[in-house]
Amino acid sequence: MPYPPAKAPGLIRVASYNLHKCVGLDRRRDPHRVARVLAGLGADVVAVQEIDKRLPPRPTALPREVIDAETGLHPAPVAETTVSLGWHGNGLLLAPGWRMDHLHRLPLPGLEPRGALIADLSGPNGPLRVVATHLGLRRLDRQRQMTQIMASLNLRPDMPTVLLGDLNEWAPHEGFAPLDPFFTLHNPGRSFHARRLIAALDRVATGPGIAVSDLGTCRSGEAGRASDHLPIWADLHVVG
Fold first, then answer.
1. 206 near 184, Cβ under 8 Å?
2. CB–CB of 23/227 below 8 Å?
3. Angle at 190 between CA 107 and CA 22, to 5 degrees
4. Which residues fall within 8 angstroms of residue 53, CB to CB, at 6 or more apart?
5. Which domains occur in the chain, in start order?
6. Rounded to an integer, what distance in angstroms lies between the CA atom of residue 39 and that of residue 62?
7. What sections of the chain are H helices per DSSP?
8. Which end of the chain has less neighbouring CB within 10 Å, N or C?
């Protein structure tokens, strides 16, 4: 699918993108290419995964100056170090007019280190709570991680909530029971592997009071080769 069309007034566009540390299908690390893809999404809020390199001190793979100059977005302050832009690889990029009012960094159980960001945001069409995460490779771990996220959410009727990220579930419908009954899961389309699309690993889940107006994946141009994942997006309407 091409880049999403212009967002209708009153809608909130969210997106999720596993950056693969800015390494594309050509095995080149090119943060400028990733930045151009991010700019093309036209999103208000982008949850990114693998924004930092793997080895300590985990410096960012997408430099702040590249984000500032080329995307029209700004990184939310979620990192705990001066060299990273994420936490457990998870980051949040916000459009002008959006800010983060509160952040909870939630460690997640499992065989490998994982985490979730629970961020309370406010913006032109806010407020909005965003849960940004990258779940584990084993279903047992993913189930425990989703259960932990649900237990940690302070559910408030005045704070519409959306969950975004690489949920790493290969099955089209199974494996998401811990999100019930609060979240409604949405499938924007197959997003992995960018070279040959076989699985919808990247998902959006909405809480009560949020309707999805439109959603999809992006494969056009550089989006089809900048990472091993395609970016996903959704236009949300707060109805509560």
1. yes
2. yes
3. 60
4. 21, 59, 60, 61
5. 12-238 (3.60.10.10)
6. 13
7. 31-41, 64-70, 139-152
8. C
